[in-house]
Design brief:
The chain has about 90 residues and is mostly helical. The chain has four helices and two strands. The radius of gyration is 15 Å and the shape is elongated.
């Protein structure tokens, strides 16, 4: 997972990412940011303009970004998931 993307979301910055790599596992398109096709500069520009021109949208996405990071990919959550995983293997 892209660390910079998750750090931005933790601060409430909705990311615009491409659909390659692990970022799309965290970003819900149109909810916590935007996922666009790789090599589509026009789509990236459209999404950035959308965020720039819609402060209310950014505010709503910002709250959802913070909640997503806190609830789904926080350090505590990740440690709990690792413990559960290893407990299943040991059992």
């Amino acid at each position: 997972l892209p660390r910079a993307m998750m750090e931005a979301m933790g601060y409430g910055v909705p990311p615009v990412i491409t659909d390659t790599g692990g970022g799309k596992e965290v970003v819900e398109d149109g909810v916590t940011g935007y996922v666009v096709p790789v090599n589509d500069a026009g789509a990236i520009a459209d999404r950035v303009r959308s965020l720039y021109n819609n402060p209310d949208l950014v505010a709503a996405m910002s709250l959802r970004c913070k909640e997503k990071i806190k609830n789904d990919v926080s350090l505590d959550k990740t440690v709990d998931q690792f413990v559960e995983y290893f407990q299943r293997i040991i059992s």
